[in-house]
Design a protein that fits this description.
Order of helices and strands of chain A: EEEHEEHEHHHHHEHEHEEHHEE
Distance between the termini of chain B: 32 Å
Strand order of the largest sheet of chain A: 6-7-8-3-9-10-12-11
Number of helices of chain B: 10
Oligomer: heterotrimer
Chains: A alpha/beta, B alpha/beta, C mainly alpha
Radius of gyration of chain B: 21 Å
Largest sheet of chain B: 8 strands, mixed
Largest interface: A-B, 49 and 48 residues
Distance between the termini of chain A: 34 Å
Strand content of chain B: 15-25%
Chain lengths: ~325, ~325, ~280
């Protein structure tokens, strides 16, 4: 499997919600997409699996093994979506049918995608529940979603996504609604399952710490476009975009551990993320950027590769080298 | 060490269960104090009772048992008028910057609301001056008083909420997850603001959060809350360097951090964690890797391991 | 976020249509106070039962009275009774509902159960009872209809007030030492006003209908004050020979009810927060 997103853009009327998105994901690779609210990271996921909200239009190409998903008719896309790309959502409660037992919900997908009979699907969904380490899976098979805890519901969400044995898994903030101890369990599980099945993973999160522990590569998004993409270690240690640098500096855990406790300060980024309708001209981060110069304002900086496998959207990236 | 601003003694709040269900012990015998100008961080997951604790201390809810003593006065033993007078000294910042500001009010009116507590509440120009003063303190412009909440971003709204908490010049601010609804870049601005206020005004904070890094950054002392009880309290550095309670350790291990690097696959705990009646046991026992028969038979009590470092565990110091 | 500022939104079509119809009726009612083509009570036997345009725009009734003038005067009767009744129901119902939400406990229980009891009586039966006790007249009609409307507003006000009480800004107001009355007046009522306005508009339509029903049964304003309901009643005997007598008040009632209902729907759409997100 290989996924290539090329010049993907999403419009709502005249407004560009997502612009100039391109990246590749090879078989078995893991990519973390990080961004604040309004960065367009969830929209990107929806555009890839072809589930954009009504009225939004995608341009560009989403190539799955060379086949453009955006050009496919809905019926064919429907099959690819479930069979080759699995999706895990932030709140599994909204993705699960509240009036259907969880075992049946998993089995339903199996019958549809793998064309197996009900008895086989039942056995297989029980195996899947066990696989995602649902405690007491045999009994919980017949539970309704509301009878499960948040972490258990997310395990069901993962089981449903894994049922058709997809080659690519997209997880959109899969642990944001969960407590930190449960989050840790779910992330451990995801990491293990992905490694075991040699799946490709796109993990979307606002939390740099989660990305750090889960993926090889990292894509930083800001206000609807990509700002930096490269190997995770490189991006987290020595980023080439002032926005990435600002995000890292804003982490409370990165506050200087030494020195007088009272003198510690966080290096926040001033201002707010601009909304899609009100992007400033030129670089969309310039108004908040400590490194902005006059040349940042007239035109939007183009995406460029500074090193092999490390791209950035900033004309001043060299100063950070 | 100066006199405590806030003293909480054996604070307990039970909610009646439905039908034959056991009472939910949202807060269960919590005792602590906060000195003038210092910050206590309360860390806990959802359902730990931290929000109920905040509401009890704000006297927005009545405890089942126990006392909240603010500046020497037991809040629940005061007549209404006296309680209103005391309220000037403690104010609150809420989690949701969208739900905590009345959308139909101007920012100026929102911020001025606690002035109602003053016997001679300022009006007209005097009131506008007070509002402008706090607006400036939180980094907003005096002209913002005439605008409405929906014209501001999440971070700016939280500044408005902080201004409202400051206008009565309190000694104590209770902040319940004040930055968890904010984006990372904006969260840092608000945390810096809170810290500046603490240092400039010698404000004491009760800072509630599920995020350890945020609490570590801001707090002098930390209390770890689990199922209505404080399982470990101590100086912030102590808690992070030498966590003693198994739950504190689990929290620290679980939090995703940049430095931790790649996740190793760990066997996920298979134990069930359901709310129940743990009166005669350690509430954490069902999830604890070190739990023994003793843990399900006896309730542990806080034990001082070092000066100001209490751990509520039978095996404190042994594990 | 602030779509309202960005682009002027087009008002919902129901709002435009409903607003136009209700405005026309209100105007008609007001004009009738200073001018009608003829006096609506002047009897002119020579011109009895003239079809439309033969005498006056809408013809005349068995007493030779001008139907258009009666219709205009009836508009005033109908609307004023409906407005007063809804005002009465709104005032008492909202007071009861918001107090129930603010005080909770036994008061809430008692208030809402008594609202249920009132609600259990059909409106018309309530009205007939009240009229039988106090005799016909506008005050009676207003009371009869208003009493029926109280529980509607009590319920709506309580349900929406409870939602507002659960917001953090009400907690913040309590932390600022505000009492239940102050919070109800400053935070709760302004924030439920939109919902109440929508409900009031819909109740106006209902009140017009009940008023017409009451006067049809002879329980409304006593003659000679013209009213739509009695015009309809009077027209019964002449349905074959003078159908216009029934058509005029019938169309007026239907149009007025439609107008207020449309206005209510339009206002609901206007206040719906989800409208902000629509492109």
């Amino acid at each position: 499997m290989s996924l290539a997103v090329e010049n993907l853009a999403v419009h709502l009327g005249a407004r560009a919600l997502l612009a100039d998105m391109s990246f590749r994901l090879e078989n078995g690779a893991t990519l973390g997409i990080v961004g604040e609210s309004g960065s367009g990271k969830s929209l990107l996921a929806l555009a890839i699996i072809g589930l954009l909200p009504e009225g939004m239009q995608a341009q560009g190409r989403v190539l799955l093994d060379g086949e453009d998903l955006l050009a496919l008719p809905e019926s064919a896309l429907c099959h690819r979506r479930g069979a080759r790309i699995g999706m895990i959502f932030q709140e599994p409660a909204t993705a699960l049918n509240p009036a259907m037992r969880i075992g049946e919900q998993i089995a339903e997908g199996l019958i549809w995608h793998r064309r197996i009979d009900a008895a086989a699907a039942r056995a297989e969904s029980l195996r899947l529940l066990d696989h995602v380490r649902m405690p007491d899976a045999q009994r919980r098979f017949a539970f309704y979603p509301h009878e499960l805890s948040g972490g258990q519901r997310q395990r069901v969400g993962i089981a449903i996504a894994l049922a058709p044995e997809p080659e690519l898994l997209i997880a959109d903030e899969p642990t944001t609604a969960l407590d930190v101890t449960v989050e840790s369990e779910i992330l451990d599980l995801l990491a293990e399952l992905v490694a075991e099945a040699r799946m490709s993973l796109i993990l979307i999160s606002h939390d740099l710490g989660i990305i750090a522990g889960m993926t090889e590569r990292c894509l930083v998004m800001y206000a609807g476009t990509r700002f930096e993409e490269g190997p995770k270690e490189r991006i987290l240690r020595k980023p080439l975009n002032p926005y990435t640098l600002g995000l890292l500096a804003a982490l409370p855990e990165r506050a200087p551990a030494t020195g007088e406790r009272r003198a510690r300060r966080l290096a926040g980024i001033p201002g707010n993320v601009p909304s899609a309708g009100r992007l400033p001209p030129g670089c969309r981060f310039a108004d908040r950027c400590a490194m902005a110069i006059a040349a940042c304002r007239p035109v939007e900086p183009a995406w460029r590769a500074l090193e092999p496998g490390h791209g950035v959207r900033c004309i001043r990236a060299e100063t950070l080298l | 060490m100066s006199a405590p601003v806030l003293e909480v003694r054996n604070l307990t709040r039970h909610f009646r269960g439905r039908g034959s269900a056991p009472a939910l012990k949202a807060v269960d015998g919590v005792t602590f104090q906060i000195e003038e100008g210092s910050t206590l961080g309360v860390v806990g997951e959802s359902g730990s009772g931290k929000t109920t604790l905040a509401r009890l201390i704000m006297a927005l809810d009545r405890p089942t048992a126990g006392e909240v003593i603010f500046a020497g006065h037991d809040l629940f033993a005061q007549p209404a008028a006296e309680l209103a007078r005391l309220r000037r000294g403690f104010q609150m910042v809420f989690q949701d910057p969208y739900g905590s500001l009345d959308p139909r009010m101007s920012v100026g009116r929102i911020i001025a609301e606690p002035l109602h507590l003053e016997p001679a509440a300022p009006r007209g120009a005097a009131r506008r001056a007070r509002v402008a003063e706090v607006l400036a303190e939180v980094g907003l412009a005096p002209g913002d008083a005439g605008r409405r909440p929906h014209q501001f971003s999440g971070g700016q709204r939280q500044r408005i909420a902080i201004a409202r908490a400051l206008i009565s010049r309190p000694q104590l601010v209770i902040a319940d997850e004040p930055v968890s609804a904010l984006d990372l870049s904006v969260q840092a601005q608000v945390l810096n603001l809170l810290m500046d206020l603490r240092d400039r005004e010698r404000l004491a904070f009760l800072f509630i959060s599920h995020n350890l890094a945020v609490v570590e950054f801001l707090a002098d002392r930390i209390a770890v809350m689990y199922r209505g009880r404080f399982v470990e309290t101590g100086p912030a550095e102590e808690i992070f360097r030498h966590p003693m309670h198994p739950y504190t350790r689990l929290l620290l291990e679980s939090e995703p951090r940049l430095e931790k690097g790649k996740r190793r696959a760990r066997p996920a705990p298979m134990r069930e964690d359901r709310a129940g009646d743990w009166t005669h046991a350690c509430a954490f026992a069902p999830r604890c890797p070190h739990a023994t028969m003793d843990c399900t038979a006896r309730t542990p009590v806080p034990t001082a391991l070092a000066a100001g470092h209490d751990v509520t565990c039978h095996y404190a110091g042994e594990i | 976020m602030s779509a309202a500022l960005e682009s002027p939104r087009r008002p919902p079509p129901a709002l435009v249509a409903g607003g136009a119809i209700t405005a026309a009726f209100i105007l008609l009612a007001l004009i009738s106070r200073i001018w009608t083509p003829e006096s609506p009570t002047r009897i002119h036997i020579a011109l009895r039962l003239k079809p439309p345009l033969a005498a006056g725009l809408l013809g005349t009734d068995p007493f030779g009275r001008d139907v258009l003038s009666m219709l205009m005067a009836g508009t005033w009767t109908s609307l004023s009774t409906a407005f007063l009744a809804v005002a009465l129901g709104l005032l008492l119902g909202v007071a009861l509902g918001t107090a129930a939400a603010a005080l909770r406990g036994r008061f809430e229980e008692a208030a809402m159960r008594s609202a249920d009891v009132i609600f259990a009586f059909p409106a018309l039966i309530t009205a007939i009872m009240v009229t039988n006790i106090f005799g016909p007249g506008q005050a009676t009609a207003v009371t009869a209809i208003g009493v029926f409307i109280i529980p509607v507003f009590a319920r709506v006000a309580r349900a929406s007030a409870l939602q507002i009480w659960a917001r953090d800004y009400c907690l913040a107001a309590r932390a600022a030492g505000k009492g239940r009355l102050a919070i109800s007046l400053e935070h709760v009522i302004p924030n439920i006003a939109g919902t109440l306005l929508v409900q009031a508009t819909i109740q106006l339509a209902l009140a017009i209908l009940i008023e017409a029903g009451l006067s049809f049964l002879g329980l409304g304003l006593p003659p000679p004050t013209p009213s739509w309901g009695r015009m309809l009643n009077d027209a019964q005997t002449f349905l074959d020979s003078a159908p216009w007598l029934a058509v005029a008040p019938g169309v007026a009632i239907a149009l007025a009810v439609l107008g207020f209902n449309l206005l209510g729907d339009g206002l609901r759409d206007l206040f719906d927060p989800r409208r902000d997100r629509a492109p």
